[in-house]
Amino acid sequence: xxxxxxxxxxxxxxxxxxxxxxxxxxxxxxxxxxxxxxxxxxxxxxxxxxxxxxxxxxxxxxxxxxxxxxxxxxxxxxxxxxxxxxxxxxxxxxxxxxxxxxxxxxxxxxxxxxxxxxxxxxxxxxxxxxxxxxxxxxxxxxxxxxxxxxxxxxxxxxxxxxxxxxxxxxxxxxxxxxxxxxxx
Length: 184
Known about the structure:
Elements: H1 2-11, H2 30-94, H3 96-159, H4 162-183
Helix pairs in contact: 2-3
């Protein structure tokens, strides 16, 4: 049992090329880096994200307003169609003997075409809203990713000095040479 414990303890003292061990440097662990990047992204990207969301909200509200105007136009057309229907019904009373069935067909056609137009406009409004919402979500995701990437690059650039950078390159070259020796 002591040999197993000694082997785990000694893993921390091995060179990093070609082995693994426990990383005791808390500043180079992924969890800390991730929390720092997220904190910086949230702190600096909050205003940009709010502006993007406000702009998207205005666009969506404009789209909804336009759709409501189209809906209002469709309701107006419906009212005109109803007025025309009343006119046709009055004419139907006068011509009931000769053209009753034809007038009824005209009435149904008017109602059906107006209902279809209203359904199409409602569907168009819903599709437009859904499309704009999806587009807003995609743009926000893209902006957040870009901000996080910029923050991560800034953090990396500020943390790496020349000596650490050269040591990292040397260690990576050593790992590549050892892997080349294994494949040869």
